[in-house]
Amino acid sequence: MRRAMNIVPGRSARLVLAVLPFLLIAFLYVSASAERRVANPNDKLLPPVSEMVASVTRLASEPDKRSGDLLFWSDTAASLTRLGTGFAVSAALGLAFGLVIGMLPMVTAGLAPLVAVLSMIPPMAILPVLFIVFGLGELSKVVLIVIGITPFLIRDLAMTVGTIPREQMIKAQTLGASTWQTMLRVALPQTMPRLLEALRLSIGPAFLFLISAEAIAAENGLGYRIFLVRRYLAMDTILPYVAWITLLAYVFDFALAKIARAGFPWAYVQEAR
Amino acid sequence: MRRAMNIVPGRSARLVLAVLPFLLIAFLYVSASAERRVANPNDKLLPPVSEMVASVTRLASEPDKRSGDLLFWSDTAASLTRLGTGFAVSAALGLAFGLVIGMLPMVTAGLAPLVAVLSMIPPMAILPVLFIVFGLGELSKVVLIVIGITPFLIRDLAMTVGTIPREQMIKAQTLGASTWQTMLRVALPQTMPRLLEALRLSIGPAFLFLISAEAIAAENGLGYRIFLVRRYLAMDTILPYVAWITLLAYVFDFALAKIARAGFPWAYVQEAR
Amino acid sequence: EPKKEFEIAWTIYVGWMPWPYAADSGIIKKWADKYGITINVTQINDYVESINQYTAGRFDGVTLTNMDALTIPAVGGVDTTALIVGDFSNGNDGIVSKSAKTVAELKGETINLVELSVSHYLLARALDEAGLSEKDVTVVNTSDADMVAAFKAPDTTTVVTWNPLLAEVKAEPGANALFDSAQIPGEIIDMLAVNTQTLKDNPDFGKALVGAWYETMALVVDPGEAGQKARAAMGALSGTDLAGFDAQLAATKLFPVPADAVAFVSGPDVVTTMENVRSFSFDHGLLGEGAPSADVVGIEFPGGKVLGDTGNVKLRFDPSYMALAADGKL
Amino acid sequence: MSAIRASGIYMEYGDQIVLEDINIEIASGAFVSVVGPSGCGKSTFLRMVLGQERPTRGTLTLDGDPLPGEPGPDRGVVFQRYSVFPHLTVAQNVLAAYEFDASPLLGKLFGARRRAAMDKAMHLVESVGLGPHAQKYPSALSGGQQQRLAIAQALAKEPKVLLLDEPFGALDPGTRAQMHALLKPLWREHGMTVIMVTHDLKEAFSLGTRVIAFDKTRIDPQAPGRYGARITYDLDLDPRSPVPVLGFSRPLDPVTIAQEKARSVA
Amino acid sequence: MSAIRASGIYMEYGDQIVLEDINIEIASGAFVSVVGPSGCGKSTFLRMVLGQERPTRGTLTLDGDPLPGEPGPDRGVVFQRYSVFPHLTVAQNVLAAYEFDASPLLGKLFGARRRAAMDKAMHLVESVGLGPHAQKYPSALSGGQQQRLAIAQALAKEPKVLLLDEPFGALDPGTRAQMHALLKPLWREHGMTVIMVTHDLKEAFSLGTRVIAFDKTRIDPQAPGRYGARITYDLDLDPRSPVPVLGFSRPLDPVTIAQEKARSVA
Ligand SMILES: Nc1ncnc2c1ncn2[C@@H]1O[C@H](COP(=O)(O)OP(=O)(O)OP(=O)(O)O)[C@@H](O)[C@H]1O
Ligand SMILES: Nc1ncnc2c1ncn2[C@@H]1O[C@H](COP(=O)(O)OP(=O)(O)OP(=O)(O)O)[C@@H](O)[C@H]1O
Ligand SMILES: [Mg+2]
Ligand SMILES: [Mg+2]
């Protein structure tokens, strides 16, 4: 008998194992849905798959009466634009501040406590102030995402910079590197893989903040639709939208994982073995 | 001139630097508040500090007419109980699943994709289903916190286990360790510091989920009070509550950081230099 | 099937604050004991969530408006009875603008409101009366909890909302109240709805609720010290004080005695109102996206009159329990 | 009994062939010194015997049975790069070797049993000269001190096969001699089979009963990864062996070398 | 010019005194071999000269001026544990040494200047025998290969002072000789001051113009950390030195040793 830790599944076993829990969940859902339908034929909480398909098909292929848009796609486009902008801004801020805080003890002393405190403020609770400063338009939605995930990125990346062996920083200096060059050529590239990993971990929260922002004030977007139809418990729309968000998020996650491995192979050597 | 990266502030300089940005923010607030009061003497958005103090003093020292409680303290107690339970459950789940997923390739294949997908589901969007399954009592509030932060913990800890050098796992096996023993004596202790770090990063999100849960169904708690007075835009209560939440969160953060350094000195050797 | 323990949910709104007061002060327990049952009163902060939970079967009764009773539980196949009609909004809902002075001036404006709520309905009615339609404005769905703050944002010009948010919004410098529910009296009805099947199986549940309600209502309208104390407690529960609560009450047409409510429910205006509501709901897709016409769900009124599909009656206005109270038969 | 036999072993990383057609039989109880230029695949060979990596071709047997494809307590190792547990102190690092066996559930000993095991561990710690540092974490140790700790750890299990990858490389001559003095009697008493990679030829010859050298026999200048290393020399020093004199045993067939040189130039 | 002088240097980690009252003058252009038992503080001494750590007492000067308290391009280093950049290939690791200087803003060269620098870098890479591995990341290198890469990197800057911590420890004799042959002429041509820690006495004597030994002169068995290491031997081998014969220069005063032994026993 080999030790459990040494048993590595093959390609196909891996696939089967990955799919199994999802099948289980699907099965549970279908039976729970059927059960509720028996009790109440109009039950809205767990609609059967057929209704969800119908509902999504309609949203995705029939133009809306009011705006003429295909709602499913226009919602997706609006949300992804906000999310993409928020992500890009957060990544840039997180990387810049994370590097500077991680590298320069003076800046660490000045900013690390501030960032720690800022990361603890629940953004939802100070929305009124945010509205006044950033208005109610697209900007405030992007800002909510940025406020939501940037402190995490900054703290995580500053920590990552801190774990680069001191010997490397010293080595760079003996090779004549200035602080700026050390940051650019030693710290930055070694932080990039972790940035991508941290972004992966932030996808969930980013969607959460996006949805919250869209629930608070919006005219379109995935979160807007979910909260709008919640007014009549249209789970046949909500659940597919949630599934779609999850799928989108998972695709991003997967893409970021692939990009990280393609762009920074040296960071994943251990994994490859 | 020394390189910026080598300039380490002394004890007192560090303190001054840390306090500076907070003073700046306080100053900005006070002047913005005064300005708004000049324009509108009844402005509620940025109340002067005196009003906030008065409001908190009332909540913290005058018993509520209805229940006889000191609301500020009973809210804090209720919220901290929920938060503490949620945190404890999440930490236990995160550690257990993180270790198992990180150590056993078979489990990784089966559960890692599921956890990745679960971490992407925005919990706010499926609240109706959660409430039906877990009820509307204390349980569902704790569950929301757990659902909110556990996937992050699991993924982060599984990743951490993955970065333990293979040589150590091999070494443990040559010393006769079974999979279980390797997990217990090699992986677990080396994951603990990261668990504490991950918990630190989760404090913000945990409060966020707590507040959201309390805003939807609760009769007390910090989030409930904020939600309750929000309809009157009583920023003189909301802002102190937010500050209090932030302070509590920061204290936890600090405590976890200290515990980590005291309990796992070997993990912070690099830092000490 | 008959049972002994019942759950009702309430949310913070002036017309529903008697419920927590009745629970706190023991009135509910008194009446429940009288019928040998237990009634648990639970506060939910999120209004929609409370209705969703009722619809999903977690509660036997819930406080809601006539429109939401139609569009959520009734459309969701949960046969629902309007057991207690407590009041209608008489100025509690309104349109407030920083830019427009009349409803007609709203043309082309962006309006923040909770979409598909009674606010939306109020706006539709207001525009209708001014000869405009919803196409002439842009509505932005805005969460009720953030409405007051949203109105403070410089780029927000017009909101539709309800009390106590409405009072806060009106107090903003430069705000004009354009229209309110006093101009469409009786159309926004606040009530306690219960599951019809549960009620049928457990008439005592309905009797206990009605009994407790009207005992509490007596206190709400009592100008004396006991009434003031009760109203002060209700005000505190909703995050304000006696004065604030009284101001909200002033914009509410209460039915303090059961006979008034019976008369209102049995009158013809309710039918007209529900006709308006269901056509608004149908136009906005609230009756289910697949609904062929406003007739899919039947609404039953006293005397057997039914709007819509008689084979699928899911919302019933049933004054019989209130009538028992009016007749002193509880 | 712990005889190791490698037949037709190849190890390839992608395009690069590291080891090529390795055939060797190591008798039970032998002390084999492995030498060879840097990067020729010595550590790779040890990793395969350890069970950490599998050869891409060929078979490895231990006492005639296929080598277990995973590391185990029968084969101890000292890695080239220090691989002690950073979260355990020096004493705990060695103690762990006793604890895994004795406490299947917790991997931790308590009370009297712990004291007994700790005595054994401390004895080993002192014999590698780390007594004064027993309570330090590895990060506070010098390079050589860490390496000595790894040696103590590996010896604690008294494995049948001991794999050493430049174990004494970071030690000064004095400490090195001390380590030799520690290892040699243990090897003799327990009949361990030892495979030790070293760059110190004196050490290789003074400790080993057999010295084997790995090296590339052919090099294609255009594709340096195309040919792997082979065993180029194999010297048996054991006075108990059939030919009890120092001598080459089974050197590479010179014809083959010539042929291959010719091929690699072409 | 790069003469180093240490006066009254102490290094303490908490309670433990590692180095005690070190006084030494190293002439510009000297090649100093440092030997001593494992854990006596050789690496610590190098770290201080490098500017990575500050002595707890005493002063270090370079050509009479206090030693800059931070590392710089005037002092190159090869650490005992490999410290190459994991995110750069072998060629890029060496190239970086040229890039920092030539491109203050980006720390990166492009076009013709990059090709020129790359030629120099590749030359160095080949001279340490890593030509075939130029495109690999350090993680795919053997231990000795990584160490050679670190040597190439340090040599690229032609520093005034070169600090080597067991640079050849992981190399086989052949490669080691190659490295000696690479280092020696560079040292001579550029007049570098080299301080090299080694455990190979032969290497210490064959490369160095001066050999110094660190060791503890007193040991308190109750508190092993109480006394630190000192310079116990200092041999000048330079044929150009005032006494052009191999001989001890400035050994420890025997009276002092005796006094201290007595004290440590008391
Ligand atoms: N993961 C890997 N991917 C690609 N090549 C690798 C990998 N690991 C090792 N190699 C290559 O395999 C060859 C042999 O490596 P190994 O570590 O076995 O050498 P070694 O003989 O132990 O050298 P040293 O004496 O320097 O430690 C080297 O050329 C190295 O570049
Ligand atoms: N951070 C630290 N905290 C406490 N003690 C330390 C620390 N770093 C080093 N030491 C101690 O300082 C002493 C000298 O360490 P150093 O690394 O200089 O030894 P060395 O002479 O280079 O040994 P080796 O030849 O084994 O590399 C050792 O006893 C070590 O335990
Ligand atoms: Mg090796
Ligand atoms: Mg050292």
UniProtKB/TrEMBL annotation, chains A, B:
Transmembrane segments: 83-104, 111-136, 142-164, 198-218, 238-256
PANTHER family, per database record: ABC TRANSPORTER PERMEASE PROTEIN MJ0413-RELATED (PTHR30151:SF0), ALKANE SULFONATE ABC TRANSPORTER-RELATED, MEMBRANE SUBUNIT (PTHR30151)
Gene Ontology, cellular component aspect: plasma membrane
Bilayer topology annotation: Multi-pass membrane protein
Species for this entry: Methylobrevis pamukkalensis
Keywords: Cell membrane, Membrane, Transmembrane, Transmembrane helix, Transport
Pfam families: BPD_transp_1
Annotated compartments: Cell membrane
GO aspect biological process, one term: transmembrane transport
Domain (ABC transmembrane type-1): residue spans on this chain: 76-260
PROSITE patterns tied to this protein: ABC_TM1
Protein name: Bicarbonate transport system permease protein CmpB
Automatic annotation (TrEMBL), chains D, E:
SMART domains documented for this protein: AAA
Main EC class the enzyme belongs to: hydrolase
Keywords: ATP-binding, Hydrolase, Nucleotide-binding, Transport
Entry's EC annotation: 3.6.3.-
Domain ABC transporter per the UniProt entry, residue ranges: 4-241
Molecular function per GO: ATP binding; ATP hydrolysis activity
InterPro entries: AAA+_ATPase, ABC_SmlMolc_Importer, ABC_transporter-like_ATP-bd, ABC_transporter-like_CS, P-loop_NTPase
Family, per entry: Belongs to the ABC transporter superfamily.
Name listed for the protein in its UniProt record: Aliphatic sulfonates import ATP-binding protein SsuB
The encoding gene: ssuB_4
